[in-house]
């Protein structure tokens, strides 16, 4: 393998450059790097790329039985579509769950007092559980109940449901 790397340098000459790091460039702190990564995680899970390409409205609207227009936060019946506020709310919950795991990781430090360790574990578990349950509720709001059953239930039960309900509803 060394021979493959040496072949170009038989013809080419390596320049004698003395490059220096600019004096204004400083290494960012760990918290700055963490904040940038967390912000990018928030934006990507919130669907910023989808929002830029598709340009959906921030919230939707629907008309009730009396003819009044009501705002809708979730785009119903579409798993692959979202309103901007829906994406930001879901992204906040994903980030909250991730922060819960980061908080749980901080409990392993041997210098942490027992009370602080218990508090960190409690806050971490609460963040994870709240995030999970709220995301579950969001998905139940987004999908109709029959399609939700189709995702979770045994295929034999699905066949019985299809026989009972109108088949066009399931497609």
Automatic annotation (TrEMBL):
Membrane found in the keyword field: yes
Xref: InterPro entries: OligosaccharylTrfase_OST3/OST6 (IPR021149), OSTC (IPR042416)
Superkingdom as given in the UniProt entry: Eukaryota
Keyword Transferase: no
Membrane topology: Multi-pass membrane protein
Keywords, in A-Z order: Membrane, Transmembrane, Transmembrane helix
Membrane-traversing stretches: 30-50, 83-104, 116-139
Subcellular location as annotated: Membrane
One GO term describing the cellular component: oligosaccharyltransferase complex
Complexes and interactors: Component of the oligosaccharyltransferase (OST) complex.
Family affiliation: Belongs to the OSTC family.
Main function: Specific component of the STT3A-containing form of the oligosaccharyl transferase (OST) complex that catalyzes the initial transfer of a defined glycan (Glc(3)Man(9)GlcNAc(2) in eukaryotes) from the lipid carrier dolichol-pyrophosphate to an asparagine residue within an Asn-X-Ser/Thr consensus motif in nascent polypeptide chains, the first step in protein N-glycosylation. N-glycosylation occurs cotranslationally and the complex associates with the Sec61 complex at the channel-forming translocon complex that mediates protein translocation across the endoplasmic reticulum (ER).
Protein name, as recorded: Oligosaccharyltransferase complex subunit
Source organism of the structure: Cotesia congregata (Parasitoid wasp)
The organism's taxonomic lineage, starting at the top: Eukaryota, Metazoa, Ecdysozoa, Arthropoda, Hexapoda
């Amino acid at each position: 393998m060394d021979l493959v790397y040496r072949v170009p340098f038989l013809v080419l000459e390596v320049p004698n450059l003395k490059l220096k790091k600019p004096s204004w460039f400083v290494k960012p702190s760990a918290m700055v790097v963490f904040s940038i990564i967390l912000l990018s995680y928030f934006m990507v899970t919130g669907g910023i790329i989808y929002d830029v390409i598709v340009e959906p409205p921030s919230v939707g609207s629907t008309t009730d039985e009396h003819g009044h227009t009501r705002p809708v936060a979730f785009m119903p019946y579409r798993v692959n579509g979202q309103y901007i506020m829906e994406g930001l709310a879901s992204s906040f919950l994903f980030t909250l769950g991730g922060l819960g795991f980061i908080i749980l990781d901080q409990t392993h430090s041997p210098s942490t007092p027992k009370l602080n360790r218990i508090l960190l574990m409690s806050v971490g578990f609460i963040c994870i559980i709240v995030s999970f349950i709220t995301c579950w509720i969001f998905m139940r709001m987004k999908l109709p109940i029959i399609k939700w059953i189709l995702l979770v239930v045994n295929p034999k039960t699905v066949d019985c449901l299809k026989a009972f309900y109108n088949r066009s509803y399931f497609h």
